[in-house]
Amino acid sequence: MYVKGVLELRRVGIDIGGTFTDLVAFDDETGELKSLKVLTTPREPWKGFMEALRQLGWELDSVEVVIHASTLGTNLFLGQVGLEPPPAVLITNKGFRDILEIGRQNRPELYNLFFQRPRPLIPRSRRLTVAGRIGPRGEELEPLDEDAVRRIAREWCSRTKVFVVAFLHSYANPSHEKHAKQIIEEECPGALVVASHEVDPQPKEYERTSTTVVNALLKPVLSSYLSRVAGELRSAGFKGRLLVMQSSGGVAGVEQAVERPAAFIESGPAAGAVAVAYFSRLMGIEYAIGFDMGGTTAKASSIVGGEPLVVPEYEVGGRVHMGRLLRGSGYPVRYPYIDIAEVSAGGGTIAWVDAGGALRVGPMSAGADPGPACYGRGGREPTVTDAQLVLGRLPEELAGGRIRLRRDLAEEAIGRLADRLGMETVEAAASIIRIANTVMSRALRLVTIERGYDPRFFALYAYGGAGPLHAVELADELGAKEVVIPPLPGVFSALGLLVTDYRHDFHMAVMRRTDKLAEEELEKVFAEMAEKALAMLRGEGVPEDRVQLVRRLDMRYQGQAYELSIPYRGSLREAVEEFHQMHRERYGFSLPDAPVVVVNARLTAYGIVAKPRLPRAEPKPYRPEPAGRRRVYFDEAGWTETPIYRRAGLRPGAEIEGPAVIESDDSTVLVPPGHYARVDEFYTIRIERL
Hints:
Hydant_A_N; 5-oxoprolinase (ATP-hydrolyzing) activity; Oxoprolinase-like; 16 helices
């Protein structure tokens, strides 16, 4: 059913990755689903974006919506796409000039004597202080020094157009921040002034200041980038709406993305996790692991009860060690993010020999340019893709024939590495795959075992251009019950954009003990947030009957430093009981007689979109005929004459016993010996051990 403003007849999802830009387009009227891949243009990403639309072949004035996701938020922030963050000035309370430098006391690497924290985003020379103080209950302890704010604005107006205002306890009383912002705007017309109470109105001044600074630095950069994309679209005849994927797992309009740009940082991986959640609900699978292996990195996420696990905070630019983000190595941002573990292992990851003569894989990547040696674009370093080609697991064409792979160049690159290791070329290629799998298995363990989940109850959804090649070996190592290869795995994150709902997150500080807090007070807080949420969704064309509001409370025992997020259904007593239970499950104990504090009230507003009618058919068991055969190398069996199947020719009910290779334009599925694959009613390939 078509609902105006919620389901668009023609929609396009575009996901810009480190190596490829993926596109999926759906026409609801005809049921046509199209997909394609083009090489990413890292320094000017909008060029790859527009090239993908050009190759789609649709007149853009017939497209109602384009939904955009990428990992570019981090790259924009780090200045890796031809745009640099602007210089900014931070104005804060006296005595808190070094808040960004001091941060927290946790050491990311306890025994690393040479570890250095990241440099503050705003240097000390541009961190300025003024007198004035608000107390934790919102009381004014010292008046704001308005003259000092005015002097700073006048002095710095000619040198910067970005000001950040972050005062203590502004979540409880934002009057000082509002007044300071007003003064700066009067003295420096046209300046961007970002106040912390607008961005992150909750306690903990370091995290609030960091979140505000990241937003302030990203805002002009992301605004410029999205304006460029929107301009290119308009020039090509597009008259619809441009939406942006958020790291929380929902889409929003460009205006909201620009207001809270830090929520856009890891939007590409989030789209893949949303797609896994959608298919797991469709297929009745309660526990799933999303495994996304692209050209540069591999990422993992967990789906529990049909929903991705979400964390309330992320660190931009943080270092990753063994799949784990090292806390304290980046810049904290307090927005909801889908919980994703990441390792530097993709199709373009480079294999090398260290000083001790040991084979290593990653973290360096050949990227899109020059790419793996087999691309024939000047790359000489051996990569994971080169190893798969040498082992016969990849065809000699990718992306529907648009990318030709040269086996001779792959063998040369792997051969040079093998000579240094004193082994045969094939042995070196197999070793590269084994090491890459070991690296990637860490990410899978991180989102299951280290989160308290038994992976034996999980299905492993493999996607990304390289994911289906490695999935079965990884599932065997992890002990996952089955592997699921969804439709269009090579562009699956882009497909996820077409099934993603609108989402907006709001929170307000409460900071009250539950025995001194009335439910009526909470209802007023939620009503205020709901009013903002409904207005925002109305502006995006979402009717009220398509809106869902989810309410939660951040709760902790009095004296604790961190909170648990608890669903709120209107009863504070029930929320407290649920908090005790969750604390017991998470930490092994609870304190039923201890005072409980409500720190924040949170509201998530969803605008539910109608989902595309994806192909579905009743499975009728049959054994398909292979399209051909070739020699493929497997660790235990060695070189094996292996049947090759075209995925496009497999109907629901197809049954294939390994060894086998299943090829499609966007990915290749490897079914090793001792495994069995079948195509189900949703055209997904499900692989289990025999």
